[in-house]
Amino acid sequence: MNFRQFAFKNVIRNARLYAGYFISSAFSVMIFFVYSMLAFHPELNLAESGGFGKGAQTGMQVAQYIIYVFTFFFILYSMSVFLKTRKKEFGVCIMQGMSNMQLKRLVFLENTIIGFASTVTGIAAGLILSKGMLMLGSSMLYLEHSLPFYFPTKALWFTFVAFMLLFLAISFFTATILRTSSLIDLLKASTKPKPEPKASVWLAILAAVLLLIGYAIAFIVRGTLVMFALLPVVILVSIGTYFLFTQLSVYIIHKLKKNKKLYRRNTNMLTLSDLAYRMKDNARMFFLVAIISTVAFTAIGTLVGFKAMLTEGVAGSMPPMSYDSYADNKQEQKHLAYIETGLKEENVTYDSIVIHNKDAKLKDKYAFNAISVTDYNLISEDKIRVDEGSAVLLQFKMDDFGYNRGKKDWSKGQTLTLSSGRKLQLTDVPDMSKDVRQYMTGNHVLVMSDSDFNALPKSKTDMDLYVFAMDDWQGTKAVADKLNTQLNADSVDAHYRFQARAIAMAEVNQLMGQILLTGLFVGIVFFVAAGSFLYFRLFSDLDSDIVQYRAISKLGLTEGELSKVVSTQIGLLFFVPIVVAIIHGAVALNTLQNLFPQISIVKEIILVLGTFFVIQVVYFLFIRANYVRKLKKVL
After folding, report:
1. Which of 96, 138, 443, 615 could lock onto 396 through a cystine, CB 3.0 to 4.6 A?
2. What 3-state class would DSSP assign to 415?
3. Phi and psi at residue 634, in whole multiples of 5°?
């Protein structure tokens, strides 16, 4: 057996340990390849892509850079951890006559083999799933035509070369900096007794205080203050999380062990005794998993939340279809005939109303958009009465990220003096309702009596809003595009505007589709990497666990008790950092909700965090069953 064969057999022998790292690396390669396949797609930049092809390609490239940089640091960290767990193996090799240079060459070859296998596997998986990924990409980008399948030669070579260079660079770097301890230290590395885990009570308290302060700030701040509080909260929570795992968790376990009644119940003695060591040993890994998972949860939750806010904003800020006709519009009747004919040809059932808008200018030169009470009652579910000489001022809440600055200036009972000298008393200053908002063009709308409205002087900014309301507005995209093209052909002046909610919603979906496609898979790569850390930590301790449980089973530990102890320990390993990440993510997404309080994203937050938690539960059940089976096989 030559040296290369020895390195290859070493990789095969350690396959169980390398499995999580290998799968995570291959998954990163696959996602990178998918992004490359989309970025290099020959038809993604064409006009039929809906005009968003170029932006989508840019998004794919950004995602590639993020994945590439993250994969570099992930592999570098994983390699350093793997090498620490193989000290005894390296000691045996040196005892058999292997030189330090040969040991470094062995590590280089092993890393290169794993890197090559991960790259090939990732590309192969990407090719197998390429048709489905193209369909998914077309769907998420809301392209008018699905992207056809093509053999991605350029993407294949680009991915292969990029990741082989990455793996070779890391293999060379890892082998170069590899330090070997004395032979005795290497051989005894796995048998050295671990010192009793200790925790500082002050650092434990500091962890709780930092987390509570960070959470409190995140819950309290509103509006634009959210942006200023973002960095301090991230710093406080990150430091608090580190001390949570290194100090507070160990301190809590020590307190639980001092509760004799709890400590001596069933198998708690075995669980708690080992738990303090595991928490201390895995503290940094828990911290990394929690932070990486928080980034994944928050990024995906934010993107999904923003999409929900934008779509709800579009639906609430414009009618299903409308035609704005300003003063001096000589094509008004012709255009209205176009629209009515087009809707009838497509068998679209609709109701039409007209809302007349004027400018109500005050003596201090401030101007409101004004409508008559008759027109207001046409569009509002809550009917009102406005007498001559009175007015109602509607205000939209979304000014200044949720702060309604208008409320500081206008109040019930205030008297407005128009430029004509006519006086109006505000009888009410309510918030603009959702059913009215879609028909309004400003954040402040003055509702006047019909006589006062008709008395307003005519202006070039006067506008008649023709609304075509239909229940199934989502199905009007085709006819809306046709009408939009037809009306734009007559665009010789700026005296009219045609709008359709279906067109605006499609543009929002395309824009957010690009961002979601970029962020979704990046977040999943982060989550899978976090899972691989947990897998590695668990199976790297398998040999020592076998020795421990074999000794305990001789004292009378039953299979049922063994399963219970193992399930508890694996459950804590898998769920403590993830639960912390979910709490962090929920607080972060709640802060996003505070930034835009008028639009609820609670459903989206629950969906994202709940989905990740369910995935983690499935992952835990699979790993637990596999781990318990391996233990029982040797006991």
Report:
1. 443
2. strand
3. -105, -5
**Alpha-carbon dihedral sign for residues 573, 578, 579, 584:** positive
Question: Could you give the CA distance from residue 237 to residue 230 in angstroms, rounded to a whole number?
Answer: 11
The answer to whether the CB of 437 falls within 8 A of the CB of 409 is no
Task: Give burial (CB, 10 Å; 0-12/13-18/19+) of 507.
Answer: middle
pTM, rounded to two decimals: 0.75
Q: How far is CA 97 from the centre of its chain?
A: 52
Neighbour-count burial of 633, counting CB atoms closer than 10 A to its CB (0-12 exposed, 13-18 middle, 19+ buried): exposed
247: buried, middle or exposed (CB in 10 Å: 19+, 13-18, 0-12)? buried
* Residue 410 and residue 429 in contact, taking contact as beta carbons nearer than 8 Å: yes
Sheet with 496-500, side-by-side order of all strands? 415-417, 423-428, 390-395, 444-448, 367-372, 351-361, 463-469, 321-326, 496-500
Residue linked to tokens 């199905």: 475
CA-to-CA distance for 60 and 42, rounded, in angstroms? Answer: 14
Question: Could you give phi then psi for residue 445, rounded to 5 degrees?
Answer: -125, 130
Q: Is the dihedral of CA 173, 64, 582, 221 positive or negative?
A: positive
- Please report the sign of the dihedral spanned by the C-alpha atoms of residue 472, residue 475, residue 479, residue 482: positive
Average pLDDT across the chain, whole number: 79
> Where are the chain's structural domains?
1-192, 195-281, 285-320+499-635, 321-498
Phi, psi of 198 (to 5 degrees): -120, 150
Strand partners, 360: 368
CA distance 159 to 537: 29
Distance CA 612, CA 5 (A): 41
Nearest alpha carbon to residue 586 among 213, 301, 238, 303: 301
Q: What is the DSSP letter of 362?
A: B
Both tokens of 590, joined, read 């709640």
Q: How far apart are CA 26 and CA 111, in angstroms?
A: 14
Q: How confident is the model at residue 399 (pLDDT cuts 50, 70, 90)?
A: very low
Instruction: Provide the H-helix boundaries in 411-476.
Output: 434-437, 450-454
What would the pLDDT profile of 3-51 be if each residue is shown by its tens digit? 777 777 777 877 776 776 788 788 888 888 887 887 777 776 543 444 4
308's enclosing H/E stretch is helix 283-317
Report the candidate in 591, 625, 84, 94 with the shortest Cα–Cα distance to residue 305: 591
For residue 358, the tally of other CB atoms under 10 A from its CB is: 22
| Token pair listed for 562 | 């063994």
Q: C-alpha angle with apex 121: 120 to 126, nearest 5 degrees? A: 100
How long, in residues, is the chain? 635
Question: For residue 418, which amino acid is it?
Answer: L
CB burial of residue 401 (10 Å; 0-12, 13-18, 19+): middle
Residue 131 backbone class (left: φ over 0; alpha: ψ -120 to 50; beta: rest):
alpha
Residue 352, beta-bridge partner list: 468
566 contacts 631 by C-beta, under 8 angstroms = yes
